[in-house]
Request: fold
Amino acid sequence: SDLHIGNDTMSSAVGAYAGSISFGSTDESNLQAASIVAIQTDTDPNEIGLAFFTQHSQFGSTNLAESMRISNDGKVGIGTASPSSKLHVEDTSSTSPLRAYNGSHYAAMGANNNAAWITAGGSPTHGLRLSAGGNGALSVYASRGVAIGEYPTTDPGADNFTVAGNVSGSS
Reply:
């Protein structure tokens, strides 16, 4: 059998709720809450997505804040109610809202008013490596040394630049 949750009083407007599942404690002194809401994401009332709400306060507040949205067209937004791509992560308080972490090293991406950032952290040996087709093409080391070539493995030293292979130029 199916479980159906509906809202007979839903208006036909962007942001209107079509039904929800709420999670919470029955103990008012230790109130915790979250919810998943079916929400109209465009002008067509049949365009329904999901909004995920979490409690950001630790002291008994019932105020929930939207933390993630899946729009009717499959776009996922974290930190935004209007995702503009398949995965849209927005965090105005950080220059690295997106992080891949393996337990001791990480790569982070983000942006601020001045620039876009790609950062390697956790003291990786090679710092940041860009590769194409499985071959490391460019390495930026923690020393600020830069090496270009097929899997450069030697740090060229602070503020130095090395190229493995041929270098050419034209004017």
Summary: The two ends are 73 Å apart (CA to CA).
